[in-house]
């Protein structure tokens, strides 16, 4: 039953039990205080008053002893008057005792006191009569009998007083018993409350504070730097806020990744279509180029026709280049790796582009302290990258300019050797708004460009486990940095 209860229900049950036990203990304590007050009142007002009455009754009886003897010896009637006063006091005390009597024992004791006292008075009055008549012998004999009756009445008075002594002792015993019960109830309530408090502390510690602390530690280990020594809940609150912030960031990154995947899917589809179309178009274009070459050798054309023929040949060559780029993008060639210095590849690429550099009126300058160390690379693919970057720089500088190629060896943060080639131009640079897009496939700012040159270059470098980065300030030229592992 307890295991099936929810945590909130368990806490409510324990707290309710604590409250009920506390209230019950308070109610019982208040009730026992009233009982004690009632008991003390009964003892004080009734039993003690009755005890005092019994004691006064006994004293009033004792005070009557000796007056007749004094009268016999002195013959003074004042002794008889005083005897009458104490008789009256005894009767008043007896009447008061009868009015206060509650139990049958009290009434029975007072009844015998009354009977014996009446007999005691009757005989004593006869003794007084004998003394007054001068019959001292008979008065003395009868006086001895009066003494025996006196002690009988005194004994009944003593028994009556013992009844109230017993009642007072019984009341005292009851008060002790009730005090003991009250202590037992109080100790039981305190012990039960202590056990419930321990149970509540265990539930809070094992099922709330413990998991909260572990969750806080896990949240802190995941990237939070909150101090949990003082307040786990506060630290957890900070960690949860950080987690919500991270979730928002992750959601944003996930959205970007989803968009990138969608774009990649589109590009993959376009690549497949481009590969199929390029393969289908390339064969007819090869036949057209061969026929144009044959016609150019066999036909005699005027200058105007010759110019038109050259334009047609150039446009066909341009289309063939586009088709070739599509094929390279969709089906990259298998790398033929060999050990070679990147500096040799740079020299080969610049030698290959000498005529085109003159046509663009661009000067190329190479800065190197020594040849870069050999790397594992496909020379033709790396050469294609260098050629592509140099041609792009030439096209960016519309009216001539200068290209600076810098070579150096550096170390990565992980202490790995890297061959670095920087290709810089003094053209207009790249606008900040499009800087992140220039490496995307099919993105171009040229009217006749395919937008695949830099994408293919970046992919070739990545296949060599390197990096291609672009640094540019608008209006201050652009620099492409190639990093290849040695």
How would you characterize this protein structure?
The protein is an alpha+beta fold. The protein folds into three domains: 7-206; 239-331, Orthogonal Bundle (Helix Hairpins); 336-485, Heat Shock Protein 90. It has eleven helices and seven strands. The chain has a five-stranded mixed sheet with strand order 2-4-5-7-6. The protein has a two-stranded antiparallel ribbon with strand order 1-3. A hairpin with a 5-residue loop joins strand 6 (467-472) and strand 7. The longest helix is centred in the middle third of the chain and has 86 residues, at 136-221. The chain is rod-shaped and about 205 Å long.
Short description:
The chain has 486 residues and is an alpha+beta fold. The protein has helices spanning 7-62, 67-74, 78-100, 104-133, 136-221, 232-298, 303-330, 342-352, 354-359, 379-396, 453-463, and strands spanning 338-340, 362-367, 375-377, 401-411, 417-425, 467-472, 478-485.
Tell me the radius of gyration.
64 Å
Range of helix content: over 70%
Order of helices and strands: HHHHHHHEHHEEHEEHEE
Terminal residue distance: 70 Å
Beta content comes to: 5-15%
Spatial strand order of the main sheet: 2-4-5-7-6
The secondary-structure class comes to alpha+beta
Choose one word for the global shape.
rod-shaped
Total beta-strand segments: 7
Q: What characterizes the major β-sheet?
A: 5 strands, mixed
